């Protein structure tokens, strides 16, 4: 599991470490890791060596600038020609600057240095940054963009909000981000994630803090349901700040979560998912959702609704009925909403699915109907895109535009999960899945090619099947997003447009790659 922690968490963990270590230790660890990565990049890149390479440090007023200056000093000691632009000279990190000068580095105010550098270190702001880049930094960042330098962001690209991934104005576009101790949420969530380039974590010993965990290490987050907050003190207490952890499933996590039939399994024990979707006018959504559900690890798929004939023609494996969810046989989870329209019959289908006493995934038209209720059962999974999220938010008295939802996906997904009291999967450039408490999950496999008609119907059928197979709403949503994203990548071969049916066709291969070692996450 890849984990990111919010600034408040990082500060608390660092505070605990700083109290135990000699002064400056953490910054030296950060600078050493940063310099090692820069040296590697210089050796791999055009100069092919550190000696005589041109390095420009952009140093802001905080410790982020300190990290960059100390790393610059280390590179200067290895023969690099290092220059530093001080963006707030009166408040520059004094120790870092002294170290750089002592190692032979120089201060510069010549913008041309940015254009001819081999490597630019963005030490403008780190986790202390708020708002867009300030005017003093802009000409330097623009000049670096004009040149051929490899841009390395220190901890995170300046201008990206560390906790939300929002990019409120100008920001640094990094080729590589060297992040300390743990990922920051803004590095995993768009739009911030798209500014970070390749993210390389550097261990600075946060794992030494009780209960803390750098990438991949055990970290008690109180799992998906805990409502704990800021529990520090007693020796056995993990450092836990509710809502401060963001996770991204990796291939081995998905492998462990995928349902696998055992010798005892028959079709009913594997789970049956019910799909209440489509309408006489829009049968396609039903066909797509059922088709994906058939690949979702359940023993059978029931369809209930007006598109029964079209569904069985496309998928003879499905058990179909023309009535509503109440008249269908037993299922372990319902999917309700895709292509349902919003008439009285649709409303009844949503009511019946919500009252069925099993986990229910609500999508599309179902969400618009649900917004009028302003609440959902605790084991529901809501799967809005930004536009549907706006309607759902209105249902709990929150006014927001789609653009605002897209800009702060984590925040609005959490707000919906808390407001409706259930799990929410917010679709988009970075799909976010979260319950009212505990960690949020972001999907690492997405591709822009998934933004295609019917793609959401495929996702809801697949996630519903995983719910019926017994996964929790958080696991079902995040595993479905992972497989759906991977299938989309496989179907598009990277950049070829895909139709929703092609995503479904690629699901078996995505599943196969996810349950075997050998990796899938890009
Ligand atoms: N706290 C720690 O123990 C460690 C921190 N480290 C580094 O320290 C960083 C955090 O340092 P700080 O807390 O000093 O904060 P930063 O260096 O991230 O930034 C704070 C400074 O930037 C200014 N600032 C804020 N927003 C700005 C904007 N949009 N444009 C320009 N200037 C802006 C503030 O006025 C303040 O002076 C981390 O990101 C990491 O790089 C590392 O050295 C590892 C250890
Ligand atoms: K930075």
From TrEMBL:
Listed CDD domains: YXKO-related
Binding-site residues for (6S)-NADPHX, renumbered to this chain: 63-67, 126-132, 155, 285, 339, 385, 457
Cofactor note (record): Binds 1 potassium ion per subunit.
Nucleotide-binding as UniProt keyword: yes
Domain YjeF N-terminal: 10-212
Keywords, ordered alphabetically: ATP-binding, Isomerase, Kinase, Lyase, Metal-binding, Multifunctional enzyme, NAD, NADP, Nucleotide-binding, Potassium, Transferase
Gene Ontology MF terms: ADP-dependent NAD(P)H-hydrate dehydratase activity; ATP binding; kinase activity; metal ion binding; NAD(P)HX epimerase activity
NCBIfam families, per database record: yjeF_cterm, yjeF_nterm
Summary of subunit composition and partner proteins: Homotetramer.
Protein name (Swiss-Prot/TrEMBL): Bifunctional NAD(P)H-hydrate repair enzyme
Organism: Streptacidiphilus jiangxiensis
